[in-house]
Amino acid sequence: MTSFAVIGSGWRAEMFWRLAAALPDVECVGAVVRTPRELPVPTFATLDEIRPDFVVTAVPWAANPDVILQAVQRGLPVLAETPPAPDAAKLHALWQLTGDTGLVQVAEQYLLVPAHAARLAAVRAGLIGEPTQVQVSSTHMYHAVSLIRGYLGQGRGPVTVRASRTTAPLVDPLNRDGWTDSDDPQPATTTIATLDFGDGRSGLYDFTDNQWHNQLRFRRILVRGTHGELRDDEIVRLAGPRTIVRTPLVRRQTGYDLDLDDFDTDTITFGERVLFRNPFPGRRYNDEEIAIATLLGRMASWVRGEGPPPYPLADGAHDHLVALAIEESADSGETVTVDAAAWF
Length: 344
What we know:
By secondary structure, the chain is α/β, with parallel strands linked by helices.
């Protein structure tokens, strides 16, 4: 059994200890909190009171670097919530203090979400040839950059960013707390950016305020390749001489109609090819829970020396550095270039 402690007590921390309770080889042994409170797991005032196999940081952006450093100074592997540091200076400082230890991973889960994992498997299988452009209108900042880089298979090289913002009225029927019961349009800002990675590879970033929760805006994913294109849950490709085919990615969801099994995700397929199979059948996890549980399992496997690092600090830091460049370019109206950083 591999143990971990959560640092923090918010809604994100709660997801980690709740999911760990159902995993066979990962155990949450407690939460480190600044003030005593009742939680479903034991609480501790400092890391010195507990010795887990690794820690998960689930604290605000500004606090994350110091919390990560405290764990690393104690020789503890860290799964750090995103982003690992709030700005470019603190990203570089964190890398200088912890990068050489190899102890820090980042809790970037988006490529583990079932739909994204299936799309990524399709792209890596060469179904659309070599990927050349990724367009993401779904999530914000570092998460979107992670998706773009992941689908492209792009490393941590230089990026040229051009961004702009527009504001327009939009009804916001849902937020993190649920239904707002308002149909009154309010100003919503959309940020659009192009990311040029060189060698003909590029990304398009498109995010509107609260797009995670606002169901009046579609989530859109487009991956363009040399031999075809993936759009959301469909692929068009050149399958042979004079043969262009369109094939859906199909999710098998149990529990519908006369299917009396519990409501659950089973597989996502492309024809007869299984692109994704739920690693937690019977748990009735939503997609985010599947992704986080997968991340926890991979972190535990890495700590045990049985698997690769799930998402190294260098990748999480680079994602956020590019995201900050998007914000800087949108603020200034100027082109921003992310040059070589210490973790390249």
